[in-house]
Amino acid sequence: MRILLAEDQAMLRGALSALLELEPSFKVTTASDGLQAQAALREHAFDILLTDIEMPGLSGLELVAWLRAQQNPLASIIITTFNRAGFIRRALELDVGGFLLKDAPSDQLVDAIYRVQRGERVIASELALQALGDKDPLTDKERRALRLAHEGLSTAQIAQKLCLSDGTVRNYLSEAISKLGAGNRVEAARIARHKGWL
Q: For the Response regulatory domain, which residue ranges apply (predicted)?
């Protein structure tokens, strides 16, 4: 089974890769961020995508959203330290096969990989109830603009990165600030991040 592991923390990436390679039927390829994983997915076929949520370049959820936009039904499992309702709801909307916390026992991860590859959905029980939390009010474009603002980019830099006009980016940020009841983009990003919407 060919597994693409996308994880930006080098020590965890190495440990997970070594752990998974102990399983005789697993062949693991690693990527250190979302963009590197995207490049690997363009060039090679995999059976499972095992990805962190928060990574530079593209988040794990953005990576899965990109796969779906390509009509690629690749089975995906999200592993995260964050049990935020917004993350879980977005993962379910993207038809992610599994959602596990990083502190889960290793045998649970291996079992989840086999089950998701068979078409089952595996969501850690402690996360399932979280999915009933607040509904994410942000559009994808508002979320991307707010995420870049959270990284410290100016309106002009965000516009350049998203291939949009400055005015359009200002509108997206303004809408996000309004929807979240925030005073400014920094507060809006903090609220969205805390809820798992960013």
A: 2-117
